[in-house]
Amino acid sequence: MTITVSVDLHEAARRSDGEVSSWTQQRLERAIHRYGQFLQLVADDPSQPVAPTRDIDAIWHLHMLAPRAYFADCMRMFGELLDHDGGFGKGEGELPRLLAVFDDTARRWEALFGEKYVQDPSVEGMTDCWHDCQGRCWHACSSKQSVAGA
């Protein structure tokens, strides 16, 4: 199954004020491809919670910035809106649940696609703090807990 969306994610990245506008073409292509895989993983079982990696999350945000298209795409692919609970994991007691969902997402990803969910932790990983420790301040971050996804 090939997942397609009705938003030009390349153009959305180019027009973005965020980090993705500075990504190399290769990094952007990989992230968009992985986002399509992420959507396929969701379509495989929409009842299962998922946790995106940083690169997938960045592309997911670009998709959501076109709300009508995002809604229509979700309804076509899943029959419901794929909700994004941004910031989950920061609240009291939420981190263990986020880590469990991330681990389960990684396990399901590997089973479906035959590859590791996180191949480059500096780009695709997940950290337990509100900022990107590995990309911005890994040397100074007090939490230093990183999940590489299996």
Q: What does this molecule look like?
A:
By secondary structure, the chain is mainly α. The chain has one domain (9-118). It contains seven helices and two strands; from the N terminus they run ααααααβαβ. It has helices spanning 9-15, 25-44, 54-64, 67-78, 95-113, 121-124, 133-137; strands at 126-127, 146-147. Helix 2 packs across helix 3 (54-64). It is globular and about 35 Å long.
In short:
With 150 residues, the protein is an all-alpha fold.
- Write down the oligomeric state: single chain
What are the segments in which pLDDT stays under 50 over at least 5 consecutive residues? 127-150
* Structure class: mainly alpha
Strand content: under 5%
Note the gap between the termini: 25 Å
Largest sheet: 2 strands, antiparallel
Q: Got a strand count?
A: 2
Helix content: 40-55%
Order of helices and strands: HHHHHHEHE
Strand order of the biggest β-sheet: 1-2
Tally of individual domains: 1
Query: What is the number of helices?
Result: 7
